[in-house]
Design brief:
Blueprint: E1 2-6, E2 13-17, E3 22-26, H1 34-60, H2 67-95, H3 101-133, H4 135-140, H5 144-165, E4 175-177, E5 180-181, H6 189-220, H7 226-258, H8 271-284, H9 286-289, H10 291-301, H11 309-315
Antiparallel strand pairs: 1-2, 2-3, 4-5
Helix pairs in contact: 1-2, 1-8, 1-10, 2-3, 2-5, 3-5, 3-6, 3-11, 6-7, 7-8
């Protein structure tokens, strides 16, 4: 038997299934967002193609992997997992999914993979800088592949642990729609700090510092070949892409956290909330732009060229 009650905070209808002892949360004022659905559809199509191709290429030549290839494979896996979750978001934009623990899982999956991509990008930037700054030491470093694997594994364990600890943040009772929080339910303060500091600011500092140092080292090299100029250009482009893709969403987190929410927020247009939704889409496009790195690494990978480790590292710019 279904009993209809109301969620006082979010203004949703809750159908309580007495037979199964559970709640099915529904949104009587479902808001369909065609523009968002089209936008995520484009990201899904392009992201699926480039990341599936990259994974196939990496796995096909797994015997020739270096530490850089392990990092890049991890990045491709994170991007591909994020892409595979997008059909649910596309469906929700057009038809509105009922709110359940599936929504909690989908939100966690989306952001775990987004931050896995961010952390892997930071790790690649550090690895590339060390290889170019200390080329002879880099050649003698042992167990680099093991270290790369450990770094990637630690990133996943850390992200899954944080997501598990703060899993209640995205429980159905805190959601207005499947992918949207109730505007009067801000994120937990500690969770916000983790997302902003460990999830964005620290990786951003690492990426900007390492990328700028790589560009300086290459620009001061007296033997300026076209290849080195190309590498410097790729490093610059990918650093800019990272900043453009991930800065808006983390600014949006802060803005929405501190923006006062009126009591009638369900009937009021909130620019900060629209900005958050737009910035989430911008962040998701990074899974497509990472293909720039895959292309230049795989181009060398399949050329049969056996170059020094720093060459691989230089080309694997994110």
């Amino acid at each position: 038997m279904l009993v209809n009650t109301t969620n006082a905070n979010c203004g949703r209808d809750i159908l309580t299934n007495a037979s199964y002892g559970g709640d099915i949360l529904t949104n009587a004022s479902c808001h369909r967002d065609t523009l968002q659905g089209v936008g995520y559809s484009a990201v899904f199509l392009l992201g699926f193609i480039v990341n599936a191709a990259a994974l196939w290429a990496f796995i096909a030549r797994r015997k020739d992997w270096t530490d850089t290839h392990i990092y890049m494979l991890n990045l491709a896996l994170a991007d591909f997992a994020l892409v595979l979750s997008l059909p649910f978001r596309i469906y929700d934009a057009f038809f509105c999914m009922p709110m359940s623990r599936l929504c909690t899982f989908l939100i966690a999956t989306h952001f775990i993979n987004m931050y896995a991509s961010i952390m892997t990008t930071a790790a690649i930037s550090v690895q590339r800088y060390l290889a170019i700054r200390f080329p002879w030491r880099a050649r003698s470093w042992r167990r680099k592949k093991v270290m790369a694997f450990v770094v990637c594994l630690v990133c996943w364990i850390l992200l899954i642990t944080v997501a598990t600890i703060f899993r209640k943040e995205n429980y159905p009772e805190n959601l207005w729609m499947c992918y949207e929080r109730c505007k009067d339910h801000p994120l937990d303060g500690q969770f916000m700090v983790l997302l902003e500091v460990l999830g964005f600011l620290l990786p951003l500092v690492m990426i900007v510092f390492c990328s700028c140092r790589v560009i300086c080292i290459l620009s001061k090299d007296k033997n300026k070949t076209e290849e080195k100029k190309s590498i410097a250009g790729i490093v610059t482009a990918n650093m800019i892409v990272f900043i453009v893709c991930y800065t808006p969403i983390h600014v949006a987190f802060i803005v929405n956290y501190y923006t006062p929410v009126p009591d009638n927020w369900k009937n009021v247009h909130l620019p900060s909330h629209k900005y958050l939704l737009t910035s989430e889409w911008i962040a998701s496009t990074n899974c497509c732009f990472d293909s720039i790195s895959y292309y230049f690494l795989l181009k060398q990978f399949y050329s049969g060229s056996k170059r020094a480790p720093q060459s691989f590292s230089s080309k694997s710019t994110i």
